[in-house]
Design brief:
Layout lengths: L8 H15 L4 H26 L6 H12 L1 H10 L3 H4 L3 H5 L5 H29 L4 H17 L4 H24 L3 H18 L4 H14 L3 H7 L11 H32 L5
Length: 277
Amino acid sequence: MTELNFFSPAQIAEKMSAAGQKKVGIPTGKFFTLAILAGAFIAFGAELSIMVGHQTDLGVGITKLLAGSVFSVGLMLVIIAGSELFTGDNLIVIAALERKIRWSQVLNRWMLVYLGNFVGSVLLAGIMFGTGLWLTNGGLVGATALNIANAKVNLTFMQALMRGIGCNWLVCLAVWMAISAKDIAGKILAIYFPIMAFVASGFEHSVANMFFIPYGLFLKGSSTVVDATGKAASAFSNLTWGNLITKNLIPVTIGNIIGGALFVGMLYWYIYLKKEA
């Protein structure tokens, strides 16, 4: 019999359970450092999506497709290079459902990875601001980044929540399928399509927003960038550090947990691992 070059869904579920158990055993300092790296890796993908998608004559749909295609680099770095991402780590609920780890350990890892992701994302936002690359094309790159950030803090709670659900449903499926692949090419393909789909669809990723919104906040003070948007400075009055948290991160994070932990982790645990009475 020819051996398949990928693992079955049932095998993936077993691997995810073991991975969750392993993650809680990583020393705190190393785990936090891995989380910082993941925040930066996702930010690299986010920055690239801004640069590639900032001005095209291809129409909204194709432009979003291009932006989503390059954004997938972020999760490729996370999974293949190695790091810890909050949205992907929503899947450690499988280990808790299998009673291999405690729910308190799940919450501990989630809080730690979330904070580390924030540090890494904001760090790269600061680095990118320092590069001055946002001045590219007469400041239109910066204007695109500013408009993206502003749009994200002007969503309703329900919009942000639902977009968060859609996002991490797809992100965790990307992680799930990447685990199934036995070679690098397979992992890249498994990651590419779901990530492209979530970005092109306009869904909301909490860790990516830890880059997008702070980057916009840094750019908000540049008259060159504001002028390039064609809007008055008052149009960006809602873009504040407080609204980053209350108007975006809180609802998006809740949505990400529902999409990843519930719709992927818990459902696949029920299908493949739950013991029948």
